[in-house]
Design goal:
The chain contains seven helices and no strands. It has 178 residues and is mostly helical.
């Protein structure tokens, strides 16, 4: 229920903001975050195709959300560095995760009730763990870079700008914890 509330909240507020200010990408990014958040639930399906797609794209909400945080309030990224970080995040959660699932057999990963992984080429738990660890390390570095930019932005903000950033950054903390 909490996951549905988070997803639909992002979708509802995002569609409202997008309709009010279509030139500002914040609403589009909020709605995209909500849809990707709900799509991540496909990884809980009993159908093999839906399960596989959900597992491969289950983390896509994170780069969309971090893109939203970096683009707030104008809807646009403010530097080339931010663009590179966001591009790397999207690549990591799409192109980067795909090879991981070529070696992931859910039955060997303590999920005996999960359906088959349709992308499985060769079940190799050690390769899966090494690739997963590498992807997690890269992801942690990218998230740290985003946090560094957000903290720097907070320190440079005026008191009135900080009042605007408090709810956004609070939502960021909540989503990263969930």
């Amino acid at each position: 229920a909490c996951g549905l509330a988070v997803g639909w909240s992002f979708i509802g507020v995002g569609l409202f903001a997008w309709a009010r200010r279509p030139d500002n990408r914040v609403g589009m990014l909020m709605a995209g975050t909500g849809f990707a958040w709900l799509a991540a639930g496909a990884g809980l399906s009993d159908l093999a195709l839906v399960f596989t797609i959900g597992k491969v794209l289950g983390s896509l909400y994170l780069p969309i959300f971090l893109h939203l945080l970096l683009a707030f309030p104008s809807g646009r990224l403010q530097s080339r560095l931010e663009g590179r970080i966001v591009t790397a995040l999207y690549a990591l959660t799409t192109i980067g995760l795909f090879p991981l699932w070529l070696f992931a057999d859910p039955a060997e990963l303590d999920c005996t009730s999960c359906p088959d992984n349709l992308l499985l080429v060769d079940a190799n738990e050690s390769l899966y763990n090494v690739l997963g660890g590498l992807l997690n390390l890269i992801g942690a570095v990218l998230i740290a870079a985003v946090l560094f930019i957000l903290v720097r932005r907070w320190r440079r903000a005026t008191q009135s700008q900080r009042r605007l950033l408090v709810p956004v950054y609070s939502a960021g903390v909540a989503v990263l914890i969930l």
